[in-house]
Amino acid sequence: MTVAPNGLGGYGGQPRRIVIEHRTGYRYEKPVLASYNEARLTPITTIGQTALDARVEVSRMTWTHTYWDYWGTQVTAFDVLTPHDALEVTASSTVEVWPSREVHATATWDDVRSDAVTDEWVEFLGQSRSTTPDDELVDLAHEVSSGLSPDAAARAICERINSLVEYVPGVTNVSTDAVEVWRTKQGVCQDYTHLTLGALRAVGIPARYVSGYLHPQPDAALGETVEGQSHAWVEWWAGEWVAFDPTHAAPAGSDHVVVARGRNYGDVPPLKGVYAGTAGSELFVSVKLTRLS
Questions:
Q1: Contact of 47 with 8, CB cutoff 8 Å
Q2: Dist. CA 73–CA 75, nearest whole Å
Q3: Parallel/antiparallel/unpaired status of strands 186-187 and 166-167
Q4: Who contacts 7 (Cβ-Cβ below 8 Å, separation ≥6)?
Q5: How many CB atoms lie within 10 A of CB 213?
Q6: Are 250 and 7 in contact (CB under 8 A)?
């Protein structure tokens, strides 16, 4: 039995060990001359999560470089400098995620709105096109948070958004803004996350976008491989960072694997790049997860 060592801020018990295989890339209508890309597919190591093994492999890669971006995400930058009609990236990782510890998000509104906090987390208080909320959502966020502490208000906002928005794949894309999502009340995990970020920031709570994976079957047998997908959730600051999954209206736990954090999806795309050529392209994605413990 693996037990968390002392000094990990309250983590303990049996971790979940998850193997992840994420295949993604592009197919082109005809060969392109070259492509220049960045992949954010490597789980990070944090106080509650350990990346035991991680590698990113690219077909026909010419050059690669790995670095940590401003937000603390590991980025694999690579070029393919020969003609190609497809680009395939395979990220393989093994991660241990510890059971969530008890959080002490006891900050008051005076604490959250203090100069020290707003200066430190200013980047997670500003809005972007992805997160700027509809006026109706701003009013709702203030109404829901009235009389509650910042942490309780954030949870209430998440739950209210979840109750009003329907999970419908295919009706939005990565460029759909929060106003459009709110008016249609439909979307997927990144849309729930952008709506929540906008509402939390509107009432003065610092909040950040988290991307990674969610094991879709917590009760799957050990060694059973299941189809999954990339996932997104939020973290807000209320004395410490609190992770919450607005798509499921529940705290993020040991089935959530963190890959990247940022202000919005634009800071954390799993794969992005440009290519030399006029052919159209089609993105493909496959995620498989296997629990080992």
A1: yes
A2: 6
A3: parallel
A4: none
A5: 22
A6: no
* Biggest distance spanned by C-alpha atoms of the chain: 61
For 214-225, give the DSSP string.
E-S-TTPPTT-E
287, 290, 255: which is closest to 271 by C-alpha? 287
Res 61: pLDDT: 80
Please give the Cα distance from 216 to 211 (Å, whole number): 15
Low-confidence ranges of the chain (pLDDT < 70): 1-13
Measured distance CA(1)–CA(15) in Å, rounded: 9
Decide: residue 70, CB within 10 A, 0-12 exposed, 13-18 middle, 19+ buried.
exposed
Give the pLDDT confidence of 134-156 residue by residue, as tens digits: 999 999 999 999 999 999 999 99
Residue 181 and residue 187 in contact, taking contact as beta carbons nearer than 8 Å = yes
What's the CA gap between 205 and 5, in Å, rounded? Answer: 32
Is beta strand 34-39 parallel, antiparallel or unpaired with respect to 74-80? antiparallel
Question: What span, in angstroms and rounded, lies between the C-alpha atoms of 172 and 3?
Answer: 42
> How many Cβ atoms sit within 10 Å of the Cβ of residue 252?
24
Angle at 40 between CA 39 and CA 45, to 5 degrees: 145
Query: Residue 157, exposed/middle/buried by CB under 10 A (0-12, 13-18, 19+)?
Result: buried
